[in-house]
């Protein structure tokens, strides 16, 4: 799934570990968002995919924009996952990063 998103949004999405990467990086001029994908397998054989959004925002940026609601980004992403599903949630975040990167 990550490779198709990288092909669709090459200016924003990168895969630090190559095409089999468990991490997808979303680049923005002021921060970097990481999407981590893993699969949990229970003893009973149940398989549960897990997708997490991690933020990396420099302290200087947080000081310049103290009203940015970055603290809840991970929780908001989990809500998107429940509402939209994995592909649509990831694409929504990527589009948001793309649009905010393009603004002057």
Automatic annotation (TrEMBL):
<dbReference type="GO" id="GO:0034080">
    <property type="term" value="P:CENP-A containing chromatin assembly"/>
</dbReference>
<protein>
    <recommendedName>
        <fullName>Centromere protein P</fullName>
    </recommendedName>
</protein>
<dbReference type="GO" id="GO:0005634">
    <property type="term" value="C:nucleus"/>
</dbReference>
<dbReference type="InterPro" id="IPR027801">
    <property type="entry name" value="CENP-P"/>
</dbReference>
<dbReference type="GO" id="GO:0000775">
    <property type="term" value="C:chromosome, centromeric region"/>
</dbReference>
<dbReference type="Pfam" id="PF13096">
    <property type="entry name" value="CENP-P"/>
</dbReference>
């Amino acid at each position: 799934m990550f490779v198709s998103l990288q092909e669709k949004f090459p200016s924003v999405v990168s895969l630090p570990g190559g095409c089999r990467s468990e991490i997808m990086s979303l680049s923005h001029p002021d921060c970097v968002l990481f999407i981590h994908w893993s699969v949990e397998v229970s003893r009973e054989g149940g398989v549960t995919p897990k997708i997490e959004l991690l933020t990396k925002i420099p302290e200087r940026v947080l000081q310049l924009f103290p009203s940015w609601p970055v603290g809840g980004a991970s929780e908001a992403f989990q809500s998107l996952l429940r509402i939209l599903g994995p592909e649509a949630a990831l694409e929504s975040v990527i589009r948001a990063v793309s649009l905010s990167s393009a603004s002057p």
